[in-house]
Amino acid sequence: MTGKFRRMNSPRRARRGGHASIHGDHLCNRGFLTIILPSLFTKLVPLSLHLLEQPIFPFKQLPCEVQIKIFRLVFVRQDLIHCLSRLDLSNPPLRDEFPESDDERRSHLPTGFHFGTRPCQIALARDPTTVLSPLLVSKRWHFIGVHAFYGHNTFAFSSLGEWHRFCNGISAARVERLANVELMWHGSLMRRHPTRISRRSLDLGWLTT
Question: Per-residue b/e over 113-149, b at no fewer than 16 CB within 10 Å?
Fold first, then answer.
């Protein structure tokens, strides 16, 4: 049996006015579909991925003098840094802010940095995590920033307890980098430690690290 066969799925062509048109080829036209269904060919990319694709500023290629000025502006303060870790008399803690369980390694007291010599409030103090957030830029920023912040600033403490809680919180490695400390010596007698060592001696032991 001989004859010509035509595929049923082939589009029919018709010539009108000298122009060829394919039945249904508008459904195969990407430009046409982009107009009527823009979301069909649009890939939604999260903003975070878009920002990561941006070129990184070559900070290491800056002159050393410029890098030092930037680190100094970010990490070094010209005034005192008061390290606060005590309850605020004007803003007592609420019931839900009390810890569920006791932890001997943490005091759970409000902490913060107060810059300058003006009277301060615990509630208005700067969050240490926010102040030291530039340390998270890179390992190099962390290394240089730790030395600059703890080695070139002057830290003030209103009691031996605040001094001890500050040192216990930043670890011995950072305590060794402290160069300028102002400590106000006042307070009442403290209960004797179970080892029969003065608690004041324990707090002042950080000065020998």
Answer: bbbeeeebebeebeebeebbebbeeeeebeebbbebb
